[in-house]
Amino acid sequence: MNLESKPSTALSPEAIAQLVNGHREFLAFLERRVESRAVAEDILQAAFTRGLERGGDVQDEKVVAWFYRVLRNAVIDHYRQRSTAARAMEAWGREFPDVQEPDAELRQEICQCVSGLLETLKPEYREALQIVDLEEGKLKDLAQQSGITAENAAVRVHRARAALRRRIEQACGTCSVHGCLDCSCEASSGEKCGT
C-alpha cells in the first residue's frame, strides 16, 4: 500500500478554473432563489470556500453539476437558519409580551429639559435636530429644506447633536450621564437634576 497516493481533499486547478468561469451563472442561480444580491454573494463566497476545501474527490468534468448541488444545499440551509431565527424571535415575543416601544406620551415625559434646551441652540442646529431626529427625516430632507449639500447636512446634524449634548451636560449634571428617567430638572430656570 502506497501512502503517498492518498487522495487530495482540494479541487484540481482545472476544476477551480471551471468554477471561476461559472461565477456569473452561479450568482444568477442564487439571486433567483434568495432575497437579495448581497445574500446571494455571501452564499456563493461561502460555497466557493467549502467547495475548494472539500471537493477533491469530484471529477473535473462533473464539478459544475456538483457545485450546483452545493449551492442548492446552501440555499436550503439559508432558509432553515432564517426560519429558526424567526421562531426564536416569536418565542422571545411570547416570553416578554409586556415589552413595548415607549409611546409618544412617555417619550415626552422622559426628559422635558431636552426640548427646553433645544430652543437655546442656533436656529440652524435646532432645525437640523427637528427634521432629522424628532421628525425622523433624512439628511437629504434637511439638505433640501436648508439649501445645502447632503454632506453639509451631515456635518450640521453632528455639530447640533454635540451642542445639545453640551447643553444637557451643563443643565443636568450627572443625570445626563446616568440617565434622566426620573427627571426633575428645570433647564429653563437653570436648576440641576435632583436639586
Automatic annotation (TrEMBL):
It comes from the Bacteria. One of its GO terms (molecular function) is sigma factor activity. Residues 112-164 form the RNA polymerase sigma factor 70 region 4 type domain. It holds the Pfam family Sigma70_r4_2. One of its GO terms (biological process) is DNA-templated transcription initiation. Keywords: Sigma factor, Transcription, Transcription regulation. Residues 24-83 form the RNA polymerase sigma-70 region domain. Gene3D superfamilies: 1.10.1740.10, Winged helix-like DNA-binding domain superfamily/Winged helix DNA-binding domain (1.10.10.10). Belongs to the sigma-70 factor family. ECF subfamily. PANTHER family: RNA POLYMERASE ECF-TYPE SIGMA FACTO (PTHR43133), RNA POLYMERASE SIGMA FACTOR SIGZ (PTHR43133:SF62). This is RNA polymerase sigma factor, sigma-70 family.
